[in-house]
Amino acid sequence: MAGAAHSAGNPHRARRMNPPALRALLADSLTLWGVAGRVEIADAGVRIIAGDQVLHVMQATPGEAPMRWWLISEARRRPAASMLGLLRSLRYALNATGAEPARARVAAPS
Amino acid sequence: MIPVSVITGFLGSGKTTLLRAVLRDPAYAGSAVIVNEWGDIGLDHELLETSEENLLGLANGCLCCATRGDLARTLIDLAARRRSGAVTYHRVLIETSGLADPAPILHTLLMDPSIAEDHRVEAVVTVVDALLGAETIARHPEAAQQAMLADRLLLSKTDLAPDTSALEAKLGALNPGAPILRAVQGAIPPDVLFASAARPAAFQHWLDAITTPGARHSAGVETISILREDPLPGVVLPLFLEALAEHAGEKLLRMKGIIRVAEAPEKPAVLHGVRHVLHPIQWLEDWPSADRRSRLVLIGQGIPPWWPARLLEALEEEARV
User: Fold this and answer.
1) Closest partner residue to B230 among A9, A100, A103, by Cβ?
2) Closest chain B CA to residue A29
3) pTM of the model
4) Which one, of B317, B309, B311, lies nearest residue B213 by Cα?
5) B-contacting residues in A 37-66 (Cβ below 8 Å)
6) Domains of chain B by range and CATH?
7) pLDDT per residue as tens digits for the range B16-75
């Protein structure tokens, strides 16, 4: 089962997300949002083609910390400090309606 | 905090019969009861033997839509009367109409701050007719929705349908984490039904349902299971929950999980969510069993089966870099 990959243990992992994993997550995200499009590995990131839009997602360099991602369109480059921010920016850029920013609060264990 | 339990189930499934039986139990006889009936003439409340001041009927609309505001006002008014000593009760039981979607009701109970400050949702019990339940679920999406959102499923009229294996398989596919109980004429100890669904003992059934990661499909509903051997960095949890609520909230019917957090591996975090409403994370004092893996079940419609696990992995990697 493909899902077995998701149960693999590796407590010392310190790797960055690779382009195939990024492509898979963003392709699933397009499906989730009901956006017709495709995601391709391109350069060091991925290219998203949806309608007449072409967007690129690139990982930020270590020197650009705390930014982790760049969403690049013809008009602008938007930084994101996490995958959560990247997904929000991407959904906004694709005009995929329905997203409402949510705030989850986590209380510390007593 | 006043415990609130919701009894739901399709038309004719036996909700009022169950409620009548529950109210005969001395520990539950003094419950405040809110009955939502569909139609101009309410009858169900006439069938309940409880004190007038503790019984409230919400007619002419369904709790999940038209009378949600009424529910909120009723609970707030009741709590105020309780504080003033005008009424006495220790718990609230809400019987929905047979066509109600429990999700908006839970949303009201959890998200209205004036309700949440005094009340705690304990359990959603869905009554399913053992004889007609399978056909009803197949024909009426409301019935399937009620089954999917249950903490506990109660098969009624089992004396009329001795073989419930097909129905139980269907219910298991819709809601693999909910224990399936049986009762004739509501004869079941109320504590079994209404014990807090977040207690470890009650939670174990959900956890036992997660045997492998992956997704199962049934009747347009996906059950997505995630298993993680590694403890998760604590910072990942709120990010993951926010992303779930923001991007999959409309498609997420139910979510439950137990998470091993790297910063407190001996105290598991329990997650509950209904649609985009996520309960506050609960921290248990200890693990309910020897299995200390993080386990998460999501029941939804239209969620790509690997999206939650891929998202979790991406957030986890960000936290570890």
Assistant:
1) A9
2) B307
3) 0.66
4) B309
5) none
6) 2-194 (3.40.50.300), 200-320 (3.30.1220.10)
7) 889 989 988 999 988 888 887 554 444 444 445 454 555 665 544 445 544 556 788 888
